[in-house]
Design brief:
Blueprint lengths: L1 E2 L2 E5 L10 H6 L12 H15 L3 E7 L5 H15 L5 H17 E2 L7 E2 L2 E8 L5 E9 L4 H4 L9 H9 L2 H7 L8 H4 L11 H14 L4 H18 L3 E6 L2 E6 L2 H11 L3 H9 E6 L2 E6 L2 H31 L9 E7 L11 H21 L12 H9 L4 H10 L5 H12 L5 E2 L8 E6 L2 E6 L3 H6 L4 H8 L4 H6 L1 H5 L2 H5 L4 H17 L2 E8 L12 H10 L2 H10 L3 E4 H8 L14 H12 L5 E3 L3 E4 L1 H132 L1
Parallel strand pairs: 2-16, 3-12, 3-16
Antiparallel strand pairs: 1-2, 4-5, 6-7, 6-12, 8-9, 10-11, 13-14, 14-15, 17-19, 18-19
Helix pairs in contact: 2-3, 3-4, 4-6, 4-9, 4-13, 6-9, 10-11, 10-13, 14-15, 14-23, 16-17, 26-27
InterPro entries: Actin_motor_Myosin, IQ_motif_EF-hand-BS, Kinesin_motor_dom_sf, Myosin_head_motor_dom-like, MYSc_Myo7, P-loop_NTPase
Pfam family, one: Myosin_head
GO molecular function: actin binding; ATP binding; cytoskeletal motor activity
């Protein structure tokens, strides 16, 4: 549900079919309240606000452990990756960072099967087109003590169980690993399985995600070697002995030491020495002391926590190498998603819980400042006193803890006495009645929590013995040397003066709060419906308690009594001037008078106020103004659309007409040319015919002349021939007659 723009989300403890791509499209470009309450609505409004106002946004997800903060974070990332519209590799990489960080930083607790044991702030970067171009992840205060000890019905970090379930038999043999129930660090809570989790499948997902995020196969193998070494270290047990009248220890089973030495690539004897003795350097001389069993166990656990903590930081840095892109242009806006530990109150609360609850006090104060302190003349509950007690005022609790941590002889008891001395009279500080009781209480915004001070100073010092650093320095493993490069490079004295865990966490938290203060915030309050992690069970009293402690009841009261929505006159005029005719842009108007005119015309007798520089509205009036603005914009847009369509279609018509005229002229020219060619062809045929006839007539005349000439010539020739023949015939006749006459003459002569 919503309280104004704040989403209240109840963990259903089951998978619901309301987070699909269809829902993502449904909630795109929708204002809060248009559709049923949904985490996607918050994500969409943060994205829209970033694009509209060109301002960084943040989504602060808070709630108790088990309320659903991590799942809400993943859903917001899923939505932002989908709406950026590119479906690119960088979006896939950002989403794939989650399984890796959950594996190494989440664990099963009494209250939550997938509890984040660290805080993270995911800053997603967008370019001017609203496309994701990169991201950066900041991690806060990993709970390292979980690696070496867990409470009943809890597990160590998921990665250990995933590794043992997902590795092949061959890889297990190389790492000398067995099943989970063989390792002391994994069985202290009495639970090595987690209902609803498939460790083998999760390990495959982790390997796949690491490939996407540019982890080399060698990187994964080095990580597995370190994890296996930590499990073997957890099985190292000590016997108490006496050496030169001093308490000392010896290791029961040296086989585990050899396994650790092989995985870390260090000398086994040097490892034994580092785990059973300590060296102190004074005035240039080193003195080696034996340690009793308790001290040896502390050193072993410190070694394990130190390695795991540094490896976790390296993994986060490696992820950032893949997803962070340096700012390429002047424009870069971001949406930050804060998923940080919820308020914690266990049977035994230690230094980690104090830091976690201090962070929650800061977030509550940020929420209070944003929601309540902006209201004028309205009383509300403020947790500023608790913040002052913990970290703000002189001689505050963290300062006293830091001070005692720096004293070589400082103990948890001396620290507790100092806290009692300075703060016993503070209303938020609770001193136990019995002096032997090593606890103190704090009244937080979410209730009273009692802290067991045992181990406070050791955890705050967060030191790593010089013997262990020397051991690491000798390691042949480049990876383990890389993890401890900063420790190796600094001297022993420098390490002693390094910042305490409290001061580091306080500085990180101050940077975080500074970042959040520069952003436009959206709030998601996650609510746990029951303590049994079961679906369809609603514990009304538990939910009301969470709502009350998270400030939601106060929020509702304040929002009803005050004016939570406020706009400067200029912003108000520029946004709503379209509702009233005759009002120009803010730089041309008397903004206060124009704002009054708009409110009088639209809101009429509704409950609103005009201040000196701002318009104060209730949620209902703001929603009504937005609705009227949408209606007016829709009407104006229809007119604009009509004119644009008219212009568009007239332009299209003129273009078409011009084209048609060109086509017509071309067709006419074609047809006329075709007709001309036909006529020309006809005329040419006519000309040919006339010429033919003229030539024929002329030919006939000439022929007639020729024939007459031929006739006369033939007649002449024939006559000449006839005459010659007649002459010839006459000659022949004369000759013949001559011959005949000669014959007759001869005959007569004879006679």
């Amino acid at each position: 549900t919503y309280t104004g723009s704040i989403l209240v989300a109840v963990n259903p403890y089951e998978i619901l079919p309301i987070y699909t791509s269809e829902q993502i499209q449904q909630y795109r470009d929708k204002k809060i309240g248009e559709l049923p309450p949904h985490i996607f609505a918050i994500a969409d409004n943060s994205y829209s606000s970033m694009k509209r106002y060109q301002h960084d946004q943040c989504v602060i997800i808070s709630g108790e452990s088990g309320a659903g903060k991590t799942e809400s974070t993943k859903l917001i990332l899923q939505f932002l990756a989908a709406v950026s519209g590119q479906h690119s590799w960088i979006e896939q990489q950002i989403l794939e960072a989650n399984p890796i960080m959950e594996a190494f930083g989440n664990a099963k607790t009494i209250r939550n099967d997938n509890s984040s044991r660290f805080g993270k702030y995911i800053d997603i970067h967008f370019n001017e087109k609203g496309v994701i171009e990169g991201a950066r992840i900041e991690q806060y205060l990993l709970e390292k003590s979980r690696i070496v000890s867990q409470m009943h019905d809890e597990r160590n970090y998921h990665i250990f169980y995933c590794m043992l379930s997902g590795l092949s038999a061959e890889d297990k043999a190389k790492l000398e690993l067995q099943d989970a129930h063989h390792y002391q660090y994994l069985i202290q809570g009495g639970s090595i399985v987690c209902e609803g989790r498939d460790d083998k499948k999760d390990f495959a997902d982790i390997r796949s995600a690491m490939k996407v995020l540019m982890f080399e196969d060698s990187d994964l193998w080095e990580i597995l070697k370190i994890l296996s070494a930590l499990l073997h270290l957890g099985n190292v047990k000590y016997n108490e002995i006496e050496l030169d009248n001093l308490a000392a220890t010896e290791i029961q089973d040296i086989s585990y030491i050899n396994k650790v030495a092989r995985q870390l690539e260090v000398n086994a004897q040097n490892l034994v020495d580092a785990l059973t003795t300590r060296t102190i350097v004074t005035k240039g001389e080193s003195v080696t002391f034996t340690m009793n069993k308790e001290q040896s166990l502390d050193v072993r656990d410190a070694f394990v926590k130190g390695i795991y903590g540094r490896m976790f930081i390296w993994i986060v840095d490696k992820i950032n190498e893949a997803i962070y892109k340096p700012k390429g242009s002047q424009f870069r806006k971001s949406i930050g998603v804060l998923d940080i530990f919820g308020f914690e109150n266990f049977d035994k609360n230690s230094f980690e819980q104090l830091c976690i609850n201090y962070a929650n006090e800061n977030l509550q104060q940020f929420f209070v400042r944003h929601i309540f302190k902006l209201e004028q003349h309205i009383e509300f509950l403020d947790n500023q006193e608790a913040l002052d007690l913990i970290a703000a005022k002189p001689m505050n609790m963290l300062a006293l803890i830091d001070e005692e941590s720096k004293f070589p002889k400082g103990t948890d008891e001396s620290m507790l006495n100092k806290l009692h001395q300075y703060h016993a009279s503070h209303p938020n500080y609770l001193k136990p009645k019995a002096a032997v009781n090593q606890t103190f209480g704090l009244s937080h915004f979410a209730g009273v929590v009692f802290y067991d001070c045992r181990g406070f100073l050791e955890k705050n010092r967060d030191t790593f013995s010089s013997d262990l650093v020397s051991l690491i320095q000798e390691s042949k493993s480049r990876f383990i040397s890389l993890l401890f490069s900063s420790d190796i490079s600094m001297g022993t004295d420098t390490r002693k003066k390094s910042p305490t865990l409290a001061s580091q966490f306080k500085r990180s938290l101050e940077q975080l709060m500074s970042t959040l203060s520069s952003c436009q915030p959206f709030f998601v309050r996650c609510i746990k419906p029951n303590e049994f992690k079961k679906p369809k069970i609603f514990d009304r009293e538990l939910c009301c308690k969470q709502l009350r402690y998270s400030g939601m009841m106060e929020t509702i009261r304040i929002r009803r009594a005050g004016y939570p929505i406020r706009h400067s006159f200029a912003e108000f005029v520029d946004r709503y001037r379209i509702l009233v005719d005759g009002i120009g842009p803010s730089h041309k108007e008397d903004c206060r008078a124009a704002s009054n005119k708009i409110c009088s015309a639209v809101l009429k007798n509704a409950d609103y106020q005009l201040g000196k520089t701002k318009v104060f509205l209730k949620d209902a009036q703001d929603v009504y103004l937005e609705q009227q603005r949408e209606i007016t914009l829709t009407r104006k847009i229809l007119i604009i659309q009509k004119m644009v369509r008219s212009w568009h279609y007239r332009r299209r018509y003129l273009k078409m007409r011009k084209c048609i005229v060109v086509v017509q002229s071309t067709m006419r020219a074609f047809q006329e040319r075709k007709r001309f060619l036909v006529i020309r062809q006809g005329y040419m045929r006519l000309q040919a015919l006339v010429r033919s006839r003229m030539l024929t007539a002329r030919f006939n005349v000439i022929r007639a002349w020729a024939l007459n000439l031929q006739k006369y010539c033939r007649g002449y020739l024939v006559r000449q021939w006839v005459q010659k023949r007649i002459v010839a015939i006459v000659q022949i006749q004369a000759s013949v007659r001559t011959i005949i006459a000669q014959k007759q003459l001869r005959r007569l002569r004879i006679e």
